[in-house]
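TEACHING EXERCISE
Course module: macromolecular assemblies
Task: Read the component lines below, then compare them to the predicted structure of the full complex.
Student: A.B.
Group: 4
Components provided:
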Amino acid sequence: MSDQTPTPFILDTSVLTAIARGDTDIIALIQAYDSRKQPMVIPALAIAGACLDARGEEAGDLLAGLELLDNAMVASLSGSEQAARLAYVVARTGLDPWDAHAAAVADVAICPILTLNAARWREHAADLDEPLHIVEIADPGD
Amino acid sequence: MSDRKTRLTITVDPHISAYAEQLVEAGQAASVSAVFNEAMAEKAYRDRRRRSLWKTKTDAADPQRVERMMTHIDQQLGQ
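Instructor-supplied answer key:
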């Protein structure tokens, strides 16, 4: 087994929304990656976007449960520099702030964005100076 | 686990400290220590409930489908 830490995944709003809606397969997928010690980053604004879509106590508990995973961490939006960077990404890509935060984190950290909606991301993958690396969650058997 | 209380020193935000003292003054808590003890006990309960919810959802998943999705992701990362 390699000692090398894997490159973190950035979870976008589509993944967080699926979790908030209680999608068992997506929850199990994220849990499996956590068991594999795969680092995962959860942009705080992406959580906000998911909360807008799926409300209720269970949705909130499922999203908060993400933070209890050993290898998941929330990326907050902190300070004027990060706020300005977010505004820049919104202006360059036209993404909403939820996904723009994911893009901003991915752009700085050079990490892939894990998404259920790769088509949407591919429209914007080349909008920033460096291309975004998009990884789609899909079942080839569907 | 012992029922004896453990002494610890914590640093908290001023508004949180003020609220804890306000609860004591209003007679809604026995002491500032009791306020923080109760808050942590509640957090422990919430975290257990959330972990349990995640486990319930994970147990209800289709493991073959999850495996296929992970393989698909691994293939994309390998490109």
